[in-house]
Amino acid sequence: MPVHRYEKWWLTFGIGTLAVFLAVLGLRAFASGHTPPGSVLTVDPELIDTIAPWNAPGVYDRGDRVDVYLVGQAFSYAPNRIEVPVGKPVTFHAVTKDVVHSFTIVGTTVNMMLIPGYANEATYTFKAPGRYLVLCNEYCGVGHQFMQAEVIAQ
Ligand code: CUA
Asked: What is the mean pLDDT of residues 9-38?
């Protein structure tokens, strides 16, 4: 049975569009070295225990600001108790050793995803002393609901 001329045109157009779409997607994804939004620093999850600064998670006072390096893994954060000063910008730098987690400080604007292979960061200045609950907002397995930490601003 012969294929109608218009149908051939449409088939050619459809397949052509698909080819262009896949070419553009492939170029963007591979040739341009795209990374997930907000993350440019890459880190091998297997090597987190051996590379600085991730091998020494903790709070580092830089004088006029504070850096906090933290590592997430199923189902905990290191450090688990984070003491930061009030009134100084605190930058949380976070990585994950295994699957996707989040680092969410309840009642603040800090809410970031920890994506395997990438370091993420968020900066926040605590205005008042207090204890802040840290939760994981990304379902990460059977212990997900137990994955928490505490930030103490003082
Ligand atoms: Cu980690 Cu949910």
From this structure: 83
Nearest CA to ligand 1 atom 1: 101
Gap from CA of 107 to ligand 1 centroid (Å) = 18
Q: Which residues lie with the beta carbon below 6 Å from any ligand 1 atom? A: 75, 101, 136, 138-140, 144, 147
**Has residue 30 got a pLDDT over 90?**
no
Which pLDDT belongs to residue 36?
Answer: 55
**For residue 106, which of 58, 154, 151, 59 has the smallest C-alpha distance?**
151
Q: Which residues of 103-134 are buried (b: 16+ CB within 10 A; e: fewer)?
A: bbbeebebebbbbbebbbbbebebeeeeebeb
ipTM: 0.97
Q: What is the mean pLDDT of residues 19-39?
A: 75
The architecture of the domain spanning 45-153 is: Sandwich (2.60)
Mean pLDDT (the chain) is: 92
Alpha carbon 101 to chain centroid distance?
Answer: 8
Q: Where are the domains of the chain?
A: 1-34, 45-153
